[in-house]
UniProtKB/TrEMBL annotation, chain A:
GO cellular component: ATP-binding cassette (ABC) transporter complex
Protein name listed in UniProt: Glutamate/aspartate import permease protein GltK
Native source species: Mesorhizobium metallidurans STM 2683
NCBIfam families, alphabetized: ectoine_ehuC, HEQRo_perm_3TM
Lineage: Bacteria, Pseudomonadati, Pseudomonadota, Alphaproteobacteria, Hyphomicrobiales
Coiled-coil zones: none
UniProtKB/TrEMBL annotation, chain B:
InterPro entries hit by this protein: AA_ABC_transptr_permease_3TM (IPR010065), ArtM/GltK/GlnP/TcyL/YhdX-like (IPR043429), Ectoine_EhuD (IPR014341), MetI-like (IPR000515), MetI-like_sf (IPR035906)
Family: Belongs to the binding-protein-dependent transport system permease family. HisMQ subfamily.
Record field: transmembrane: 25-46, 52-75, 188-209
UniProt domain ABC transmembrane type-1: residue ranges: 15-206
Subcellular location: Cell inner membrane; Cell membrane
Annotated keywords: Amino-acid transport, Cell membrane, Membrane, Transmembrane, Transmembrane helix, Transport
NCBIfam families in alphabetical order: ectoine_ehuD, HEQRo_perm_3TM
Signal peptide range: none
Protein name: Putative amino-acid ABC transporter permease protein y4tG
GO cellular component: ATP-binding cassette (ABC) transporter complex
GO biological process: amino acid transport
Protease among keywords: no
Cell membrane is among the record's keywords: yes
Length: 242, 219
């Protein structure tokens, strides 16, 4: 889908929210939902940050780490990709305290979502690093760079461009997964919706607003990643790697 | 004692029965996803003016959380007089959500069919129904089977969301056991292990299927 269509959809979604906000049946719920949306955004941002860090670390450990580290990273990736996000969330929330580690719900949310998406992300990072042409490694070796230098200066800047679109998809997945944190008592957008629905039974206005708000957030993310991709690949085409 | 084996064995049969519900939900959801996805992809090609509408619809479904869609179907449909029980509403929501993803997979499959095949079908005066049924689909489906398989596994891992509308599947059962006995360690860990085992097995199956399909198309 073209970036124009996406921007069009975003404008349309925001316009519909704006029009609905003038109706009393809808505007009643808006402040509470916006409050929830702020928490959703906080969790999504921190979770994404953790996911990127874990993705890069796990990929590097699996590709270049010593055997124990490689083994550890593989176990991490398999466990977090092999079980569902909700199970991980519940495990950290309900089971971990029985081992004497009590984390508050917000931390559990960021940890579970970040670790979950990071596991998928490590495959993205690995694929992108492997997609960098062999000649680049050879040239870097010829220039007598250390392995860390090669990665930092030559390989990762080029792999970065290939990583942007799949990371964009993962960030969207993460944003959507934040709805799960409502099930461990955090009052995010989904939780507020549920709560208001139970109190007022005004199901249609509440859930329409919530769907539009999630849509707007996803679209902002998609458009942002498209622009980033455009910028990053422009740099490469002109021969001055970012 | 952090892990109690006796307790774990005691709850195993209960979880086993709940696992059947999880698997039923997975299979039914995937049947809806695979069929509806195919319909969306075919309609998009066969009736060109629907293209824009369908891509906006797919984008809408993919940009909003499945959990909210489940709530939406479960709470909003009754307002229009359609009362579904939790299992049906949940499976329907999962099926529609993944139909949006599957339709993109089918589209990729159709795009990979050589243009000459379409032209030959027109030259032979085949109707668009026959063209899809006998020419395009038999060639387009085998290469995308692994991609569809990946979505089957992804869908399987989303079924715990049904616990949010109190469907008695694996996660909900584990939560109930936990709240009754105040022991969450065994039920939730066992559920996690079940998902891990199933995912690893199905990933291996998809890999070998991919190998078989590659060999067949190589010939």
């Amino acid at each position: 889908m073209g970036i124009r269509t996406l921007v069009g959809m975003l404008v349309a979604a925001l316009a519909v929210i704006g029009v609905l906000a003038t109706q009393e049946a809808y505007s009643l719920f808006l402040p509470g939902l916006l409050q929830g949306a702020v928490l959703t955004i906080e969790i999504a941002l921190l979770g994404s940050l953790l996911a990127v860090v874990m993705g890069v670390l796990a990929a590097l450990a699996r590709m270049y780490g010593p055997a124990p580290l490689r083994w550890l990273a593989t176990v991490y990736v398999e466990i977090f990709r092999g079980t569902s996000a909700l199970v991980q969330l519940f495990w950290l929330f309900f089971v971990l305290p029985q081992f004497g580690v009590s984390l508050d719900a917000f931390l559990v949310a960021v940890l579970a979502l970040g670790l979950n998406v990071g596991a998928y992300g490590s495959e993205v990072v690995r694929g992108a690093i492997q997609s960098v042409a062999r000649g680049q490694w050879e040239a870097a070796t010829a220039l007598n760079m250390s392995r860390a230098q090669m990665l930092r200066r030559i390989i990762l800047p080029q792999a970065f461009v290939a990583m942007i679109p799949p990371w964009g998809n993962l960030f969207i997945e993460l944003l959507k997964s934040t709805a799960l944190v409502s099930l461990i008592t955090l009052s995010d957008l989904a939780f507020k919706a549920q709560q208001m629905n139970q109190n007022t039974f005004k199901t249609i206005p509440i859930f329409t607003l919530v769907l539009l708000m999630y849509l707007a957030m996803s679209l902002v993310l998609t458009i942002g990643m498209r622009l980033l991709e455009r910028r990053a690949s422009l740099g490469l085409a002109r021969g001055r790697a970012a | 004692m952090i892990w109690d084996w006796a307790f774990a064995f005691e709850i195993l049969p209960v979880l086993g029965r709940a696992a059947i519900v999880t698997i039923e939900a997975t299979l039914l959801g995937f049947i809806i996803a695979a069929l509806l996805g195919l319909v969306l992809a075919v309609v998009r090609i066969a009736v060109p003016w629907t293209g824009w509408t369908i891509s906006v619809l797919v984008e809408l479904i993919r940009s909003t959380p499945l959990l909210i869609q489940i709530f939406f179907l479960y709470f909003v449909l009754p307002k229009f007089g359609v009362v579904l029980d939790a299992f049906t509403a949940g499976v329907l929501a999962i099926g529609i959500h993944y139909a949006a993803y599957c339709s993109e997979v089918y589209r990729a499959g159709f795009d990979n069919i050589h243009r000459g095949q379409w032209e030959a079908a027109i030259a032979l005066n085949l109707s668009s129904w026959t063209t899809f049924k006998d020419i395009i689909i038999p060639q387009a489906i085998p290469p995308i089977v692994p991609a569809l398989g990946n979505y089957l596994v992804a869908l399987f891992k989303e079924t715990p969301l049904l616990s949010a509308i109190a469907v008695l599947e694996l996660m909900q059962t584990a939560k109930i056991i936990g709240s009754e006995t105040f022991r969450y360690t065994e039920p939730i860990t066992l559920v996690g292990l079940f998902f891990l085992a199933m995912s690893l097995v199905s990933a291996a199956l998809i890999r070998s299927l991919e190998g078989v399909l590659n060999r067949r198309t190589m010939r």
